[in-house]
Amino acid sequence: MLAADRSLLEVNLRQSAIKLREKELNLYAENLAAMATQAAVLAGFTTTCLIEIPTPENPNTFSFHLLHISAIVSICANITCVSLCTITSMFGSGKALRGRDGSMDEAVEGMNIERNLIIKCFYIGLSGNLITVLSTCLILMAYPVNIIAFCIVLFSIYVIYTNSVRIYKKFQLTETVKLDDLTQYPVKVTNSISRSHSVGYNNEEDNIHNNLTTNGSRYRRTVSEVV
Questions:
Q1: Is the preceding peptide bond at 144 cis, omega within 30 degrees of 0?
Q2: Which of 47, 215, 219, 222 has a 20 to 30 Å separation from 196 between CA atoms?
Q3: Pseudo-torsion of CA 68, 69, 75, 76, nearest 10°?
Q4: Is the entire prediction scored with pTM above 0.90?
Q5: How many angstroms separate the Cα of 138 from the Cα of each of 64, 68, 131?
Q6: Cα(43)–Cα(47) distance, rounded to whole angstroms?
Q7: Is the pLDDT of residue 212 over 80?
């Protein structure tokens, strides 16, 4: 009975830990979905900018080449971000739900590792998009409007970078809660329960056998006395 209670307690503890892991998995999936949406929007903006910008008669060669290179880099990085987000969410969630024992931990840790590469791709795509806007200001606008617009875009890049670093340091995790020791706890429910049941059944059989033996001996003594 104690073995069965202990196994039940271990199973309940492990189920609670898996529910916590599921929340972490959903958090990663939501973050990847949001990042994929923004990367797709940026890729669309950059593609439209690359296609719709007309070629002037006497373009600035450096600005024009910078426009093409930055636009291609932004489009490729953002499409890579969208693709990796989709693949990671699809296969990671599938392994967590349909995998073998311990797949939840492997899926969560794998999504956390892949998220670092996806964030880098998103940063590269965003940087390429902003550089494309800079090149567009130099190509399409006349002096001194292009200089003013160029400074505004540079200030926007500075604000994005500095605040991104500040927010990252503000919410940076110095210590994280690990649930591997709970979700990977070795639980043998079937064997322990079956052993407890078998012990109970054996005890019941022994009691029945002893009762039959005792009653039979008493019956034989009574018969012998009567005879």
A1: yes
A2: 215
A3: 140
A4: no
A5: 9, 13, 11
A6: 6
A7: no
Tokens 């939840």 found at: 104
**Token pair of 182, please?**
């709970």
Q: How far apart are CA 160 and CA 15, in angstroms?
A: 42
Q: How confident is the model at residue 138 (pLDDT cuts 50, 70, 90)?
A: confident
Question: Is pLDDT at 172 greater than 60 in this prediction?
Answer: yes
Q: At what angle do helices 2-52 and 61-98 cross, to 10 degrees?
A: 160
Is the distance from CB of 38 to CB of 78 less than 8 angstroms? no
Nearest residue to 42 (alpha-carbon basis) of 71, 65, 83: 71
pLDDT score, position 49: 85
Structure tokens at 45: 């903006």
Altogether, the residues listed in the chain come to a count of: 227
| Identity of the residue numbered 73 | V
Residue that has been written with the tokens 């500075």 in this structure: 158
